[in-house]
Amino acid sequence: MRPIDAFRYCPGCSRALPERDTEVLFIDCSFCGFRYYFNPAAAVAAFARRADGQVLMIRRAREPSIGRLAPPGGFVDPGETYEAAVRREFREEVGIEPSGLRYLCSQPNRYAYRNLVYPVLDLYFVARLDGPTGIVDSNEVSAVCWLTPCDVSPADLAFDSTRKAYEQFLDTL
Predict the structure, then answer these.
(1) CATH number of 41-172
(2) What is the number of helices (H) and of strands (E) in the chain?
(3) Residue 88 to residues 9, 15, 19, 94, 118: CA-CA distances in angstroms?
(4) Cα distance between residue 65 and residue 77, in whole Å
(5) pLDDT tens across 11-52, in order?
(6) CA gap 66, 170 in Å, rounded
(7) What is the torsional sign of CA 102, 91, 155, 111?
(8) DSSP, res 10
(9) Which of the 8 DSSP states describes residue 88?
(10) What are the extents of the domains in the chain?
């Protein structure tokens, strides 16, 4: 279900809202004038390599895409820059902070969570890692994998956005 369909009443005046067929305008109450635009959430991830050229991937420990490969990453917190979010997510998930962080690309995504499908804009980076990694948050990560970049199968990647970004990452090698 789209989030726009989950909200049937105006948060401003509690009146029933009419059916809507757009994902851009979230709420537009004709009675009280309350208007709220539903914009995509921001998420980040980074394809990080170590000196031997292998790339770090995690196996997701929960839905969506449980068991699939993904670079470490997650949602950006309020007041946080994209770069700070990447560093935080790496610390939280694999216990190390990436260095040499560079922007790669952005990709639109749809993230299914608790019966709603949220629009997300994923921002991807490339980075280096100089040190050991391990599972820090087993609720998020079931395995840490170091892989040769060309051996990563697109079918094993968690999201369409990740597959598209990974193609761009491979072009940088």
Answers:
(1) 3.90.79.10
(2) 3, 9
(3) 36, 41, 40, 10, 22
(4) 22
(5) 899 999 887 766 666 778 889 999 888 789 999 999 999 999
(6) 24
(7) negative
(8) -
(9) H
(10) 1-38, 41-172
